[in-house]
Amino acid sequence: MGNTGLFLLLLIRSLLSAEGTSTSETTSKSLQQMCDINAEVRRMSAELAEQRVKTEQQQAQSQATDEKKCLFYTKCFLSVPVGKVAFSSALLDSGEKALGPFNVDTTIVYKYVVSNFGNVYNPQTGIFTAPVRGVYHFLIFALSMGGIPADVYLKKNGHGVFMAHEDQPSGHGTASNAVTLLLEAGDVVYVTLPATRRLKDNMNHHNTFSGHLLFTMEQSTCLCS
Prior knowledge:
The protein has helices spanning 3-19, 24-78, and strands at 86-90, 97-99, 106-107, 112-117, 121-122, 127-129, 134-145, 150-156, 159-166, 172-183, 188-193, 199-201, 208-216. By secondary structure, the protein is an alpha+beta fold. It has two domains: 3-78; 86-216, Jelly Rolls. The strands form three sheets. Strands 3, 5, 6, 8, 9 and 11 form a six-stranded antiparallel beta sheet that branches. Strands 4-1-13-7-10 form a five-stranded antiparallel beta sheet, with no helix packed on it. It has a two-stranded antiparallel sheet with strand order 2-12. A hairpin with a 4-residue loop joins strand 5 (121-122) and strand 6 (127-129). The radius of gyration is 40 Å and the shape is rod-shaped. The two termini are 43 Å apart. Keywords: Secreted, Signal.
C-alpha cells in the first residue's frame, strides 16, 4: 500500500474515533473528506511533476546556451590575427663610447634598431612588450673593457632572469646568454647594467639585445565543464 493510501486510512480512523460513534452521516462526511484529500494530493502531485519537467527543460536550455557561448568565445579568441614578432637592436646608433659605470642599476637603451617587426621594441626606453601570449626567445651580448667587469641582466617584469658576465683584467672580453620565456600579452622584457659595471661599444655593435616570437600559446576564455 502506498503512502497516500496509508495516510487516508489513518485519517479516516482518526475521524471515526473523534466522533465516538459510527453513524451513516459521519461515514458520509468522512468519505467526502477522504475524496477531497485524495483529489488535493493528485493535484499537488501533478503540479510537482509539471514543475520538474519545466526545471529539466530550463537546465537543458541553459547548458545549450553555455556551449554556444563557449564555442563563440573560443572561435573569437583563436581568430585574432597574430603578425610576425621579432626585433634586433644594438647599443649605439653612431660613434664609439662607453656606457657606465653608474651608481645604481640602469636600464640599457639599445638605440640602434636593426629590425622591429610588430613594433614590439621601444628604442626610447629599451623595453620589449609582448603583444600576445606565447613563447619568446631572447639573446643578449656584451663587450667588456679591461679592469671593469661587464654584466648585463635580462629582466622580465622587473625580475631578473639571466645574466651575461665577463671580467677581463686587460683588453676586451665578450659575454652572452639566451633564454626562452613564456610571456603573457603586456609582459615586458629589458636589459639592465648593474651598478659599477661598464660596457664598451662602437660601430661594430658588440652589445646587442634581440628577441622573437617562437609560437603563440592560445588560451580559451571558456570554462565549460
